[in-house]
Amino acid sequence: MTLRNTVIKGDLILGEAVGEGDVHLEGVTVEGTTFVNGGGENSIYFNDSVLATVIVNKNTGAVRIVAQGSTQVIEVQLETPTRVVEGELDEGASGFEDIVVAEAMQSLGDYQVRLEGEFDTINSRAANIRIELSEQTDIRTLILNAATAVLGEGTIGTAEINAEGSTLSQRPQNVVLDIDGSVRIGNEEIIESYSDETTTTIRSIEADQGSLSLDLANFVAGLTADDFAVTAKVNGQSYELENVQYNSSQQRFTLFPGFPCSSDRLCSYPLDRWSAQQVFLL
């Protein structure tokens, strides 16, 4: 089955009637959600297409989804075993950007998820599953929110470990260990965060009442509030900040202003006074 050169304002359902056959989307834009409920091991091809969200849930057997040409898929949610492949993409094409392994994924078969390509984020929420990476696979950020076995020879930039019991066969460049436990990488038990980089720069800052979230160019393990200088201005007047706390894994400051408040609670103040120039790495 082939669908060409169309814009779908709502959802697209590739139903069980597809069976083990192939489906080709060529030059298709889906503004809603694309549901993949059928297809075979070599089945669903997205070519020069734009899709917001793809949800894979096939009750019988695994399915393969492939991005080609200029395809952009913002998010893929995997609820059943899937092989995710970035094929012959155009230069600069994003293909599959973020992959979410849903809690509904079951631990059945030889693998649950097989990845081939370059991905911004892989977020696994399913317990006791296996994710296999091809040798060419490159993942910018891998987030493990449940016990997961990550196999294969692919490259991982940063692994964020938020649950006990995970194992990785390859050493990531950076590990953010946000648990009171450990993660096994190869034959080594890792008990604290580490990073290949020792310096970084601040790309942007997002301010909220009582906090600052940083976007760092790269993760550096072990940063504390003492590694930064934070200042604030309110109505043109500079204030010292008291009890500044920094969460390295979240890259987030909690701030307590030193200027007068009308209550014992954290007072409100004009956050547009914060700027990137007011937070520096020492």
UniProtKB/TrEMBL annotation:
Keyword Hydrolase: yes
Key words of the record: Hydrolase
GO molecular function terms noted in the UniProt entry: hydrolase activity
Protein name: Glycoside hydrolase
Originating organism: Bacillus thermotolerans (Quasibacillus thermotolerans)
